[in-house]
Amino acid sequence: MSLMLEQLEKGDILISCKKNEHARTALISHALLVANNVATPSGIVIQFFDITTLGFCKKYFRQSLLEKWSVFAYRLSGNKIIAGQAATIGNFWISQCPHIIDGWHIVSPNIYSISSICSSFLGNPCFGPKAIKYVTYLNKTCQYNPPKEFTPRSVQWFSGVICTFLPIALYQSYLGVEKSYRYMAIDAKKSLPRDLAIYLHNNPSWKFIGNS
Predict the structure, then answer these.
(1) What pLDDT is attached to residue 130?
(2) The pTM is what?
């Protein structure tokens, strides 16, 4: 199914990779979460959250991204409230983090943990005891405030904060442990984008929207 920009909705999870590669197998890929879908006189405006080496970002999504990259889109089936709440929590997080407004981009720097690529690559994304304990922390503490890993002084080697952390943690912050078992039972700190794509593909609560 071909993906069009206007199809994207708040809370959709996107996995991007090189053209002609697949989100579930690509070695190099990137995870994002749609923050907003707003109709304007000039057309649909899409904003998304992601984590890059620049930091925790909120950016405008361009049609050119769909043309340059293979972007795979997944949506929580039949529950726009949960999807919307995940995106709303992202707005709380970025407003509470020290941030820089650079044109159309909002960036909270010094968040990304390059070393955590190694732990995610070598780690197991299963929803084990440590992952469950972390969801409890997110749900109790982080519905309005960003997690401790987003505080520059708290950023550590192997903190787990790579791009995949963001969409998983945003959903888990709202869902809590019990509902995460159904909708987001995956380790936020030990998952690569392809792990998340495999999980969403295999979870009947999520549907594949299309890819560019």
Answers:
(1) 95
(2) 0.92
